[in-house]
Amino acid sequence: MGSLKEVKNRINSVKSTRQITSAMKMVASAKLHKAQSRIENMLPYQQKLNEILTNFLSTDATFESPYTEVRPVTRVAVVVFSSNSSLCGAFNANVVKKLGETLEEYKSLGKENILIYPIGKKVEQATKKLGYTSRGNYQGMAEKPSYVQAYELAGLLMQEFVEKQIDRVELIYHHFKSMGSQILTREEYLPIDLSKVETTAATEGSGKRGFQNDYIVEPSVGQLIADLLPKVLSQKLFTVLQDSNASEHAARTLAMQTATDNANELIQDLTKQYNKSRQQAITNELLDIIAGSLK
């Protein structure tokens, strides 16, 4: 059992740590609230866009789009979303692990044919450790999600796909489901799977009034669908960016809450230890006084 001074110093140290974790939890919680508001404001636009596209796809219109072309994969791009800072539990570790699994699957293509676009400092550092070169610096996007930056990145990916510089684009990110649940997701971004768009729109629009095909479309439905696809792809990337950002703040809030709770438990245990040591010291002093008086 440590001395009274050592135990007291440790109690003060844990209390200082608790103040830090408690403050970080409050900051993360405030950022999470803002991130949730941004997602809620964005969802109606995304749902309507998917709804329009889905209902046009349900017609007999024929169209051609380079974004739906499925071809043998000889070069792949992986866009990975993480945070810039730590102290958010296993958030970044899970992303890096999933990235490692993905790279292992494409190992036969060779490192030069695997392009990694890291959104966040942590995954950028992991990319270097894995022996790959990052395709640009996107740390600002992870810190403050921007539609303009997401639009530019989506445009770059679409251009490289159309020019056949890459044959597939995959996304790795955390989907924000709730405060206590962030689902690690890996999905195909290009070529776009229109059946998934239809399924998503059907799920989001369940219980809503049916779509009325009362549009007059110029020059044709097929051309409109082809023009809508880039907007859907740009919106998708921005949605994923918002998802990852909200998931990061939720994970950090939970991690700091857990750390604060652990600090409280440790303070209680150390306080008990301090009181026992103090009691023992007082008892020893009393025994010495009594023993001295009996001589």
UniProtKB/TrEMBL annotation:
A Gene Ontology cellular-component term: plasma membrane
Membrane-related topology note: Peripheral membrane protein
| One BP annotation, GO | proton motive force-driven plasma membrane ATP synthesis
Keywords recorded for this protein, A-Z? ATP synthesis, Cell membrane, CF(1), Hydrogen ion transport, Ion transport, Membrane, Transport
> Mind telling me which CDD domains this protein's record contains?
F1-ATPase_gamma (cd12151)
Q: Where in the cell is it found?
A: Cell membrane; Membrane
Write one Pfam family the protein is assigned to. Answer: ATP-synt
Q: Does the keyword Secreted apply?
A: no
Asked if the record carries the keyword Ion transport, the reply is yes
GO MF, any single term: proton-transporting ATP synthase activity, rotational mechanism
What PANTHER family would the database entry show?
A: ATP SYNTHASE GAMMA CHAIN, ATP SYNTHASE SUBUNIT GAMMA, MITOCHONDRIAL
State the similarity comment: Belongs to the ATPase gamma chain family.
Role according to the record: Produces ATP from ADP in the presence of a proton gradient across the membrane. The gamma chain is believed to be important in regulating ATPase activity and the flow of protons through the CF(0) complex.
Q: Relate the assembly described in the record.
A: F-type ATPases have 2 components, CF(1) - the catalytic core - and CF(0) - the membrane proton channel. CF(1) has five subunits: alpha(3), beta(3), gamma(1), delta(1), epsilon(1). CF(0) has three main subunits: a, b and c.
HAMAP family named in the record: ATP_synth_gamma_bact (MF_00815)
What's the name of the protein?
Answer: ATP synthase gamma chain
Q: Which organism is it from?
A: Bacteroides intestinalis
